[in-house]
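Example for tutorial group B:
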């Protein structure tokens, strides 16, 4: 393995938007992430209902704007 072509592998401090911080190793010294194992629904078992409600209100508003179509003659 050539020594001059590889980046340095250093201790990295990770900051999540939920406030969780932890250390890992990476080629950068700090990372800012939106989701981590403390707040991701897959690991916590909790769903974020705020996103679901917003999507439902947008889709129901879009459906309300559509005009009903007349049935096709057979």
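The residue assignment follows.
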């Amino acid at each position: 393995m050539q020594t001059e072509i590889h980046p340095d592998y250093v201790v990295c401090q990770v900051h999540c938007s939920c406030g969780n911080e932890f250390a890992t190793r990476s080629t950068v010294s700090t990372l800012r992430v939106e989701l981590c194992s403390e707040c991701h629904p897959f690991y916590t078992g909790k769903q974020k209902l705020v996103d679901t409600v917003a999507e439902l209100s947008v889709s129901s508003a879009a459906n309300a704007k559509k005009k009903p179509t007349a049935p096709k003659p057979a």
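The chain has two helices and three strands. Compare this with the pattern of hydrophobic and polar residues in the output above.
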